[in-house]
Write a structure and sequence with these properties.
Layout: E1 4-8, H1 12-24, E2 29-33, E3 45-49, H2 50-59, H3 61-69, E4 72-81, E5 84-97, H4 98-112, E6 115-117, E7 131-134, H5 141-145, H6 147-150, E8 152-166, E9 173-180, E10 183-191, E11 197-203, H7 205-210, H8 218-228, H9 230-233, E12 238-239, E13 247-254, E14 258-259, E15 262-264, H10 279-296, H11 300-330, H12 340-348, H13 360-372, H14 374-399
Parallel strand pairs: 1-2, 1-7, 2-6, 4-9, 7-15
Antiparallel strand pairs: 3-5, 4-5, 8-11, 8-12, 8-13, 9-10, 10-11, 14-15
Helix pairs in contact: 1-4, 1-10, 2-3, 3-4, 10-11, 13-14
């Protein structure tokens, strides 16, 4: 059956769901509306992992090949702490420029017959559409218009952060922690092309104000950060985006993801803390799930309900991991003075709901032992989700 689908938002989620739905039925009338001019995207690079690439391959091999070919990859993680460096081998990771990713998705969508309309702002569901997909980001105009129906809730985070670029090419996912007289400041850095990397700088609020970053011009702020992270930048500059400054992360949730023929996708539906590096991945997985639900259910209400239930359930462990990851950085002094290899090991365990409640040195020892003893591994797998569930229930009851 031919249906008219309007996707609002020309980011990865909106473009990819249009691709998948057009592949399912070439007769569908699909238009993607993007409020900004073509090629004016924000951001630097995005990350993903091999398991996600496999999902892309299963849903649209042509898109998966194009994205992989345009990506850089790494397998190591490096941490720099107080002049010491430790390196750990990990899973294969990938980085791709956001601009390049959007170009590839837009090209694929056009080749399949999707119409792309730029400089086209949609603030209310257009008449005549059978399905309207709100993929217009965390500040979604469509979701905001019906915020009461969606049950939107936004919780601000604690630590200020800023997204930057650099011409320094990092060959591993890199963490660097620098102590100042006002507290610790740190950077996450990863390559995404042959000539640029992403740098996300974060610190506690008192460090942010103590260093004067709240009052500095962009140029002065970048100069200070270049000085603080000179050891890892090797003389390369940090690059800011005009008009983009420091902010605090906002965790957005919605009680329901659909209202009539309007459905939420990606950051319009949910956000997860940037320290888990999963925002774009989760948005594209939303697209996969929505396309699957629309294929499996002929009636739109049943399809949207199935999509919402499936994705909300799938996101629970990711959202839990993101909350604990953010809290790990907010409690950095608890871990930073451990020997670097131990600190880095606990950095890798920051998603654990147990870690905040066990002394760091003890947790490190138990984790090492669990790696050797199957009984302890089973206990950790059994106990972790139960602690997370209990804490989530207490948090929900407190908020209510």
């Amino acid at each position: 059956m031919r249906v008219k689908i309007v996707c609002v938002g020309g980011g990865p989620a909106g473009l990819y769901v249009a691709i998948l739905l057009k592949r399912q039925n070439p007769a569908h009338d699909i238009t993607v509306h993007e409020r900004d001019p073509e090629g004016s995207t924000y951001g630097w690079g995005v990350t993903y992992w091999r398991c996600f690439l496999d999902k892309l391959q299963a849903h649209d091999a042509a898109t998966a090949r194009a994205i992989e070919d345009a990506s850089v990859r790494w397998s190591d993680g490096v941490a720099h702490v107080e002049g010491l460096t430790t390196r750990h081998q990990g899973d294969e990771g990938f980085g791709i420029g956001r601009h390049r990713l959007l170009d590839l998705l837009a090209d694929r969508a056009r080749r399949l017959g999707v119409r792309l309309e730029f400089d086209s702002e949609i603030t209310e569901p257009p008449a005549g559409a059978d399905l309207v997909v709100a993929a217009d980001g965390v500040r979604s105009a469509l979701r905001t218009r019906h915020a009461a129906a969606f049950g939107t809730r936004i919780v601000p985070g604690r630590n200020p952060y800023v997204w930057l670029g650099t011409t320094k090419i990092f060959d591993a996912f890199t963490f660097a922690f620098t102590e100042t007289e006002h507290g610790w400041i740190w950077v996450y850095a990863y390559g995404y092309s042959g000539d640029h990397s992403t740098c996300v700088v974060e610190c506690a609020p008192e460090t942010y104000t103590g260093l004067g970053l709240d009052r500095a011009s962009q140029a002065d702020g970048l100069a200070l950060l270049e000085k603080l992270f000179a050891d890892v930048l090797d003389g390369h500059p940090l690059i800011g985006r005009p008009g983009a400054g420091w902010q605090t992360f906002r965790t957005l949730t919605n009680r329901t993801w659909h209202h009539g023929n309007l459905v939420l996708l990606g950051d319009a539906a949910h956000t997860t803390h940037y320290s888990v590096g999963a925002g774009t991945t989760l948005a594209l997985e939303d697209a996969m799930c929505l396309a699957r639900a629309l294929h499996e259910h002929a009636a739109l209400p049943e399809a949207l309900t199935a999509y919402e239930r499936r994705r909300q359930a799938e996101l629970l462990p990711v959202q839990s991991a993101a909350r604990h990851s953010a809290q790990w950085y907010e409690n950095l002094p608890r871990y930073i003075h451990l020997p670097p290899h131990r600190m880095f090991a606990l950095l890798g365990q920051r998603h654990s709901p147990l870690l905040p409640y066990v002394p760091p040195q003890l947790y490190y020892g138990l984790d090492k032992a669990a790696g050797r003893l199957e009984a302890l591994r089973r206990l950790k797998r059994w106990l972790g989700p139960r602690v997370a569930s209990t804490l989530h229930a207490r948090s929900s009851a407190h908020r209510g």
